Amino acid sequence: MIDHVHDLAAVREATDRLLSAIGDLDNAAVAEPSRLPGWTRGHVLAHLARNADALVNVLEGRPMYVSGEARDADIERDAPRPLEVQLADLRDSSARFLRTADVPADWSRTIEMRNGVTDSAARVPFRRLIEVELHHVDLGIGYELTDLPEEFTAREIDFLSERFTGNPGVPALRLKATGGNGGKQWSTGRLEGEPVSVSGPPAALMGWLAGRCDGSDLETGGAPLPALPPL
Ligand SMILES: O=C(O)/C=C/C(=O)CC(=O)C(=O)O
């Protein structure tokens, strides 16, 4: 059972944390590379603002983006803006998303994301949380995978395990958290065959599944760490 009210509170907290961290940057820092290949920090901030608008579209029953090309063009257009403009846009678009999500609605209805992915409306707040939290890390401004709230990390591993299950490009995996969330286990990938056991701290497991690190700090008992397809 997804608690969208709880998730919206987490989105508010994560957004405040992000806005406060961005407020400490300057125009030069916004123009510098982020940790995402080919994207400056300005691209990441523009993407976060446009994703908030896109999720308003989803909640209101419109297509998430007009097209993939329009999505990419909007990010390119907005990326070079100075800090003050980026900050105001992200603050306003995030507030629009939260206002839209506060309107009473049937949260069990099915919504459609881009690329035809369907889900329950109740999961939209968590999807926004993923964007805000992981892209905060991608900015490379001192907020790391290990700083993410423990509950978020465990739920993101749940979410990605579910997403990878049945994906023909993902071998059967048994994931085991050590340290925080210690002992918690997940399985994912193709259901047939002996699973590869991968263990490590939750932040490292999540970072590997989410394509944020190479998994070199994970244990596989000597087996090669499988390559994962992009998300
Ligand atoms: O979780 C999904 O299925 C889709 C997420 C996104 O499309 C997030 C973006 O990359 C975006 O809003 O541009």
Automatic annotation (TrEMBL):
> How would you classify this enzyme at the top EC level?
isomerase
Q: Where do the segments described as Disordered lie?
A: 177-197
List the InterPro entries.
DinB/YfiT-like (IPR034660), Maleyloyr_isom (IPR017517), MDMPI_C-term_domain (IPR010872), MDMPI_metal-binding (IPR024344), SCP2_sterol-bd_dom_sf (IPR036527)
EC number assigned by the record: 5.2.1.4
Protein origin, superkingdom: Bacteria
Is Transferase tagged as a keyword? Answer: no
Gene3D superfamilies according to UniProt: dinb family like domain
Q: Identify a single GO molecular function assigned to this protein.
A: maleylpyruvate isomerase activity
Record domain MDMPI C-terminal: where: 147-223
Q: Which residues form the Mycothiol-dependent maleylpyruvate isomerase metal-binding domain?
A: 11-139
Please identify the protein, giving its name as recorded: Maleylpyruvate isomerase
Q: List the keywords (alphabetical).
A: Isomerase
